[in-house]
């Protein structure tokens, strides 16, 4: 026979369920808000005790309402937060099992790519999926088998107004990439696809996660090379930083794959080439500068050029490879690129690194620039470009330096 306390709990839960079944949307929202406020840190035994061992009845009502109303966004945020209370309180996966049995996982994945659903609600869905994934490999595989990686990646790439939603997607992909060997490669390819998105934040987060994931893999996928080089065109410093970090990882000696390193080196060298502009003449420089300004800033190709110079400077272990590709000639040409001062600055700093490290480069650059111009460059590589005259810029662009294999020297 139930004691008085149990009878009181049963009466209370009956009233709650009756209010829910007969209540309007407003009433149900208030029930959910009250539940969330009172039970945020509760455990499963405590929850069952408070609901007289009938918490599943309330849980089932929430999941049922979610399945029939999520497309309309009705109280969606409150429903997801209430479900989180149940799932994070579960110690024996009781509520998680019930949730999966009624198709809750598929509902969460569908929420991610419904356009009319708010980003804040998608963030709640991502956090619930992370909660599920954290229960172990079986649940990670279940998410992946349900085409979860694609849904999460698309959500991350298409979200443009809420960075927290994108960060939640990154955390979830990170979870799915670890302790889940069957689908690690699928997550890896999904991250590469995100690099092609138009969202700078998605590109940054994806590149950051690839920096973490790539060293744990045995090989580099060739489809990664072009997207990561294209990230150097980004106007966002955070994206460029992560791209350069990733390029340094890809060009490390760990992979024992010279084809990958050579391909990246060739692409970086290609970035240094200054594309000719046949429509631009000395007579209309001022007009063209105004047009460039109205277009919103420098050409992406010049932004990429500056970033490539910086990247080459940071690739200390690969300097000898770049010397064999005649990088000194191109760096001097970029120093003469008056269309984009940041390219001049980065090329000057990078060339100065080679000059200091390799005596043969010192001699070649000295001969190409002449004593006066070389001294001005050598004494202040960071500010040299700002005082460069058009004639000096032309001297840099017209250099005829060619580094043969025999001329290069190592440390």
Automatic annotation (TrEMBL):
The chain's coiled-coil residues are none
Q: Which InterPro entries match?
A: ARM-like, ARM-type_fold, DUF5578
Q: Which Pfam families match?
A: DUF5578
Q: Which PANTHER family match?
A: ARMADILLO-LIKE HELICAL DOMAIN CONTAINING PROTEIN 1 (PTHR34258:SF1)
Spell out the protein name for this chain: Armadillo-like helical domain containing protein 1
Q: Tell me the organism.
A: Rotaria magnacalcarata
